[in-house]
Amino acid sequence: MSLHSLQTLAYDVERIRQDFPILAVQPHGKPLAYLDNAATTQKPRCVLDAMMHYYTHLHSNVHRGVHYLSEQATAAYEHARDIVASFIGARRREEIIFTRGTTESINLVAASWGGAFLRPGDEILLTVFEHHSNIVPWQLVAQRTGAQIRVVPLEPDGSFFVERALEAITEQTRIVALAHVSNVLGIVVPVAPIIEHAHRVGAVVLLDGAQAVAHMDVDVAELDCDFYAFSSHKVYGPTGIGVLYGKAELLERMPPYQGGGDMIRRVTFEHTTYNDLPYKFEAGTPPIAEAVGLGRALEYVDSIGRAAIAAWEEQLVASCIEQLVQIDGVQLLGPERGRAAVVAFSVEGVHPHDIATFLDREGIAIRAGHHCAQPLMDFFGIPASSRISVAMYSTEEEIERAATALRKCITVFRF
User: Which of 5, 103, 200, 295 is most buried, judging by how many CB atoms fall within 10 Å of its CB?
Assistant: First the structure.
């Protein structure tokens, strides 16, 4: 028996589901099948408990006080940083910057690094399947600096060939910013050769890991990426907090992104000196309780086992694809293989919003729309699509319910 089969057999999804109180909710009187995890994941009870414990036992502002509560809050906040650093394989804790989420992390790099180092004629390399949060910040900085955006295309069937990216990297490329995993296609991008080639021409690489960290092992030191961004709420943690990893030597050279308290050493009206990493990029009171919750979420993921979670989700995605391709009129977006937790599709003659509304009445939550990836929708020639996305607590029965409901929906809207 293969290791994959053993991991799947040992996986106790029903026990895991008991850790997530919201899964007991019954929308419209139906059992909840929550299949919108690429948008946000649900939170285990231990994360909720950790945040409540912080508020009821530790709450104070961090870094600025010498009293007991401030010291305890600071210790909890900084411990969360250590957990994040270990979870993604950062060599140094000061390379972990807390932000509001993936979007702010990318904006920070675009505004600070891009504003300082991009020049007219420099090239910013993106892919056609990027989330808007990894497109618009680069458009803004390109307008300010005179840099140009180039886009790596997909193959006609939606496949991604790494050779296309390698060919697009030139001596003018200064940064390659791309999703580690596509939030629509689920493609796991083979980033290692892209990073290596980018470094060979002197470019830096930012990876949008929003759809990766909950579904696979991520080791930023092994990847040798220059920046890595992800959001807490997509990896079973609270909303309102995310992470930017950056190599210390790059972060040291970058100007602050925002000004305010805690990011300074000395302020006069004539001159200000800035704090050390990571605090140079953490202006103002940080999301302390959210950091505590994020740290606990990552510990929870590791307690289940990232390899076990990935194997379970791979089985669910394979089952989802197998059932969807048998339904008349359903067209998958992207290749059937090599996906991580996401299956997007369109249905001839039925609008995605109608599909999502119909499934919702059956207690099934999926996503419908352009998924903040309008250039990708344009590539496929559609305005929107439907998306099923799984998580560690998803089940085979939920996939079957979604497929059954989709068949009913198509019958209703076509006749």
Answer: 295
- If asked whether residues 232 and 264 sit together in one domain, one would say yes
pLDDT tens profile 22-73: 999 999 999 999 999 999 999 999 999 999 999 999 999 999 889 999 999 9
Of 225, 320, 372, 409, the catalytic one is 372
Contact 168, 124 (CB under 8 A): no
> What pLDDT is attached to residue 5?
47
pLDDT band at 414 (very low <50, low <70, confident <90, very high): confident
Q: What is the pLDDT of residues 265-286, one digit of tens each?
A: 899 899 999 999 999 999 999 9
Residue 46 annotated to the active site: no
Task: Answer yes or no: do 156 and 58 share one domain.
Answer: yes
Q: Flag whether the pTM goes above 0.90.
A: yes
Q: Identify the pLDDT of residue 338.
A: 84
Q: Would you say 89 and 213 are in contact if contact means Cβ atoms under 8 Å apart?
A: no
The answer to whether 196 and 261 are in contact (CB under 8 A) is: no
Q: Can you tell me which residue has the tokens 């618009």?
A: 136
Q: Are residues 236 and 375 in the same domain?
A: no
Q: Are 23 and 236 in contact (CB under 8 A)?
A: no
One-letter amino acid at 5 equals S
- Same domain membership, residue 340 and residue 223: no
Give the C-alpha separation, 197 to 213, whole Å. 23
Residues 258 and 393 in one domain: no
Residue 415 lies in a domain: no
Bridge-partner residues for 389, per DSSP? 36, 342
What pLDDT score does 282 carry? Answer: 96
Count of residues making up the chain: 415
Whether 61 and 116 share a structural domain: yes
Domains identified in the chain, total number: 2
Strands 342-347 and 330-332 come out as antiparallel
Segment 217-273, tens digit of pLDDT: 999 999 999 999 999 999 999 999 999 999 999 999 999 999 999 988 899 899 999
The CATH number that applies at residue 343 is: 3.90.1150.10
CATH number of the domain residue 248 falls in: 3.40.640.10
Which 3 state secondary structure label does DSSP give 325? Answer: coil
198 backbone dihedrals φ, ψ, rounded to 5°: -60, -45
Output Rg (C-alpha) for the chain, integer angstroms: 22
User: What is the distance between the alpha carbons of residues 106 and 230, in angstroms, rounded to a whole number?
Assistant: 9
